[in-house]
């Protein structure tokens, strides 16, 4: 009797422990195949983090994305049964009190809100964090990882303090605090990725952080757009933007015409117009690290060359994107009185953006890295579409743009205007320099994101 009582007591005491161990094993078994991707910004405008999520899902992970829902992400994310997007609440600065107080309230709210969202999720093996913005996300994700047993992976796109320095100045107390914060908490991550070799070297030398360079690569949907899809896109855009509308109506009623193409509605055949304008595209977040006055001044010089009798095509310049300085530059554009150039600033649906790049004749990039250490992803996308690029020069641009091979590098509006004149001098003659750059891009083997991710990131997270 005594033996049976002892056995019953031992079983009673051990059963909860066994159940707890079984429950923990079940929870962490689930966690091993779950990843949380954190973007303290707009998910729809964070393509690299969207690509991370898609690649993780394709490798069998379930993925939860935490971020702001200001614009629509790619359809692949929305349709994946392995990816769930959880919206974070975005708080704007209050209109009362000193700016430092407004900023402090915003940071505290974001920290508490993000921590709550992280702890409410099922356990994750990894937390993937985009930096910038890293304040307060790095510390919050690290703390949540400590509580839940998750490993923190920071993907360094740039330095947050350097972007803040464009607005406040490099010696502002907030900027210095942000730099100290990034350096301190950045060292607590388990794995660090970065976008250039220059940034990798800087992280090691000045921050004591070892990182792996993972270059941005174009996704598979960035490619040259077939002519029939070009026409559909131009007709769609022409309903909103006059720059894409036909300059004259076709004499034959069976023909449907845009500014660049026409389609025979009976045969369905699409052709380029004989004297079509050239299509120049640029994309931007309309922030301080991109000076679009350079492009506008270059366009003025290009216009003057046409007026002076140079054999150059008219231009349609489409600048896509949203951001704080869009209204400022829109006013500048309205003050220009171009006769041979039309400038429009469309906001495109996610699916239309690669189609526009694949339909364009030339891309222009005005991104100057605030740190000098990151590369413009817009150029990566343009190269994926075999679109030649003119890009403003900065410290590590050579890691992406090879001058005179896949595009041209310029320093100011004078140099850009001269490049536009040279590239469009024989337009659309296939023997021109513009088409030679396009052929170079077509002939080069461009590794796509999925292939590159499996070769670089996947082995790293499996070993971490």
TrEMBL record:
The keyword Transmembrane helix applies. Signal peptide: none annotated. GO terms for cellular component: endoplasmic reticulum membrane. Its EC number is 2.4.1.142. InterPro entries: ALG1-like, Glyco_trans_1, Glyco_trans_4-like_N. It catalyses: an N,N'-diacetylchitobiosyl-diphospho-di-trans,poly-cis-dolichol + GDP-alpha-D-mannose = a beta-D-Man-(1->4)-beta-D-GlcNAc-(1->4)-alpha-D-GlcNAc-diphospho-di-trans,poly-cis-dolichol + GDP + H(+). It is found in: Endoplasmic reticulum membrane. CDD domains: GT33_ALG1-like (cd03816). Keywords: Endoplasmic reticulum, Glycosyltransferase, Membrane, Phosphoprotein, Signal-anchor, Transferase, Transmembrane, Transmembrane helix. Residues 281-425 form the Glycosyl transferase family domain. Mannosyltransferase that operates in the biosynthetic pathway of dolichol-linked oligosaccharides, the glycan precursors employed in protein asparagine (N)-glycosylation. The assembly of dolichol-linked oligosaccharides begins on the cytosolic side of the endoplasmic reticulum membrane and finishes in its lumen. The sequential addition of sugars to dolichol pyrophosphate produces dolichol-linked oligosaccharides containing fourteen sugars, including two GlcNAcs, nine mannoses and three glucoses. This is Chitobiosyldiphosphodolichol beta-mannosyltransferase. It comes from Camelus ferus (Wild bactrian camel). The lineage of its organism: Eukaryota, Metazoa, Chordata, Craniata, Vertebrata. The gene is ALG1.
